[in-house]
Design brief:
Order of helices and strands: HEEEEE
Distance between the termini: 55 Å
Radius of gyration: 21 Å
Largest sheet: 5 strands, antiparallel
Shape: elongated
Strand content: 35-45%
Structural class: mainly beta
Length: 139
């Protein structure tokens, strides 16, 4: 038993050290929203739709290339973006058919991105709180 435990520990250590050896600096921002509210439109039999209000919590991580707020135009459309990953999502609410629950599948990555609408400053994610255009209200 001890031999297997040691082998597993060494494998985990190697995996954790590899990114450090090939290091380039990134800044990770963890955002947690609790509570969060979402309205979801459900379509039932015969095309009947119903708006259902759901509440719960959301956690995601934003990966900035160097420092908080830094970004790049990785898709060549003239606007900077940063990758995101949803780490946790748990929402519940009631519909006319009963309880509705929405959860993340822990076995699948939930990747996304944040992209600015206009590139005022190349290399900076031009969204609040990193950049507020003059004369614009924050947020």
């Amino acid at each position: 038993m001890k031999r297997s435990w040691t082998r597993a520990t060494l494998a985990a250590t190697v995996v954790l050290l590899m990114p450090v050896a090939s290091a380039h600096a990134v800044f990770l921002e963890f955002d947690e929203y609790d509570p969060i509210g979402v309205t979801m439109e459900l379509t039932g039999p015969f095309g009947v739709t119903e708006a259902v209000n759901l509440t719960g919590d959301l956690t995601f991580v934003v990966t900035f290339p160097t420092t908080e707020g830094s970004a790049s135009d990785s898709d060549g459309d003239g606007r900077d973006q940063v990758p995101t990953e949803m780490l946790a999502l748990s929402l519940t609410g009631n519909s006319s058919m009963g309880l509705v629950a929405v959860n993340l599948n822990p076995g699948m990555a939930s990747m996304g991105s944040i992209e600015e609408q206009t590139d005022f400053n190349t290399g900076l994610l031009d969204v609040f709180p990193f950049f507020v255009p003059p004369g614009s209200p924050p947020g």
